[in-house]
Amino acid sequence: MDWLIAPFEVTFVQRALWGGLLVSCLCALAGTWVVVRGMAFLGEAMAHGMLPGVAVAALLGGNLLLGAVVSASAMAAGVSVLSRNRRLSTDTGIGLLFVGMLAVGVILISRSQSFAVDLTGFLFGDVLATRPRDLLFLLAALGTALVITVLGHRAFLALAFDPRTAQTLGLRPHRAQVALLALLTLAIAASFHVVGTLLVFGLLVAPPAAATYCTHRIPRIMLLAAGFGALATVAGLLISWHAGTAAGATIAAAAVAIFFLVATGARLRATLRGRSRGGPGTGPDPGRPRSGKNRAGRTAGAITTALLLVPVAACGTEADEATTESVPHGYVAGAEESASAQSRLVIAERSSGTVRILDLVTEEVITADPVPGVAHIADDGRYAYLAAGAETTIVDSGSWIVDHGDHVHYYRAQPRRVGLLPGSVRIAHSDTALAAPVLDNGSTALADRAALDEGEVAAGPVLEGAALPYGGHLLIPDTGTGRIQVRDRANAPVLTLDPPCAHPGGQAPTRRGAVFSCADGALVVTERDHRFTAEKLPYPAGITGSTARFFHRRGSDVLVAVRDSRVLVLDIGHRSWRPIETGPVTAATTAGAGTDVLTLDPGGVLHSYDPETGAETAQRPVLSGPVDPATPPVLLVDAERAYVNDPAGRRIHEIDYADGLRVARTFDLEITPDLMVETGR
User: Fold this and answer.
1) What's the CA gap between 439 and 467, in Å, rounded?
2) Confidence of residue 645 (pLDDT cuts 50, 70, 90)
């Protein structure tokens, strides 16, 4: 056991161990996003982009770490600026900065007669020379990185998968990109002194890349990456001590070796599992790693074997659990999971009751059962509620999402008619447990959502007032007291909220809370840890009266309300109203923070307005003629496009609202699209 313990009895090796462990944790936080977002080239470029700062600091006798931070920050700023240039690809901008910064560094060094900069130390580091103050610096850097990671998690996650979605969710992708570059800069600048700029890339990429073979959840990837980095540090220092090799380079090589070991183990496990499933035997899975805890530590050889098998065993846990789950994560029976949203439009013609479902991905038009006398249509994101007289037909559009908070599953299936619900539905909201369609008389007809998903209508009680499912409860305005009541799923009172909401009108759920229109403003109800609070957002001066309905992209934190010749924009994130003078409006909506407000005027012209200044940014005629008040058009919006129906022209226009209201597609129909809703978003 002396060969294992003796190296770490030396003080400088102990400091090297602590330095390597801190660097491993720091690189795990930043490196996870490098791997997930495919930013390896950027990481490599920023690592070498520190050379000019280090060179200047060395020539002037300054602090090398400070020079590295300044140079890396300049590199990050340059990348951020060039990434906004549409004439250059991101890789081109990074490559130009990479070469430029590296060239400047070499020129500075070449001008020094004494070659004061130690290029070997800069490129390869000297982990064994780690000083106590270096450990304090690394500890402070790790704390800062942890704060950035926690605060920016949602924004980084949305940015990794869809920057446009991040924008519409109000997560400010440009700021998130800057914060992510700052995190990467911090990790590289703090780590280069330990393992060097040429080898920091190994700890930055190899451990997170290995962790992706074990799990797909970001927090778990970070934890596993830190563990793999720590294992590489211990193994690298041991090998370096006994073999006399460079410690920093050996640690980086160990990290890369762990990656290949994990990748090989994952492939071997999959192969053995496939053979086990295909054979007739019923014995244990030969691909499952066996526990060696009781025997680890008996001999030096056993310890070595355990160290090498840790990466494989770590990845075996979640992978094996996944194979033994009876229902895979996010699985929905009878549905096909997709990589992106599978949006559909449910369209109805009033005169004939004809119903069509337009698949916006395949452009297929699906014929659904007619609903004679249909006069109104509503949706809850998946189901369309077609009201005709005293009853409403519920149609499953076959397109929906399953939201797990940190990620989303997209599903598609064949549309189907579910059944009838008594009453005429005007607005519909639902969550995973309850569907709460609001009837034209102001009451709410509850229905079991799980039964709907199985193709049946299990009607519940009819509640007085417009109920809104939120936070596992029901929110119901009491028109008598002017307060919002919180009730449980059995309709038992839980809490009455203050301040009051006089003459409650429209309501809408958002990611930041449930919003109710009141006579003097909007009431925002939020829930955290099963505690409900309410906050009043007063109207701007001179505006009174509740609005009948809010319009917005489903889940967005920015909503609009139409008031005669102007639109009121409500930003929940900023807790503010903004009036926009638009002239007469027949329809209005918005996709969320950072996007324009869209309005349709009586002449059939679509307009877009800057929500900050109220200035008109674009306009485009989209209808065949002036709006018929008897059949007003519908204006819908999602994270990428807006949709306007043209009943007179028997068509639907898809509008790219981010490109000057460009008409991206036009769908010609054989029916009059009087009524329209969008599902699957």
Assistant:
1) 10
2) very high
pLDDT in tens, 216-270: 788 888 999 999 989 988 888 888 888 878 777 788 888 889 988 988 888 787 6
Q: Secondary structure of 214-279 in the HEC alphabet?
A: CCCCHHHHHHHHHHHHHHHHHHHHHHHHHHCCCHHHHHHHHHHHHHHHHHHHHHHHHHHHHHHHHC
Measured in degrees and rounded to the nearest 5, phi and psi for residue 336 equal -105, 125
**Nearest-angstrom CA–CA distance, 391 and 385:** 10
Reading the block at residue 341, the tokens are: 């949203």
Contact 120, 58 (CB under 8 A): no
Q: Is the pTM of this model over 0.90?
A: no
pLDDT over 80 at 360, yes or no: yes
| 537 phi, psi to nearest 5 deg | -115, 100
Return the exposure string of 501-525: e unless at least 16 CB atoms fall within 10 Å of the residue's CB, then b: bbebbbbbbbebbbbbbbebbbbbb
Supply 139's token pair. 């500890």
Name 287's Cβ contacts closer than 8 Å, sequence gap at least 6. 268, 269, 270, 271, 272, 273, 276
* Closest C-alpha among 406, 33, 405 to residue 221: 33
Q: How far is the C-alpha of 356 from the C-alpha of 596, rounded, in Å?
A: 30
Nearest to 30 by CA among 127, 163, 134, 144: 144
Residue type present at position 324: T
d(CA 363, CA 386): 22
Q: What's the pLDDT at 521?
A: 94
Could you give the C-alpha distances from 578 to 2, 215, 497, 504, 569, in angstroms and in order?
A: 72, 44, 26, 20, 5
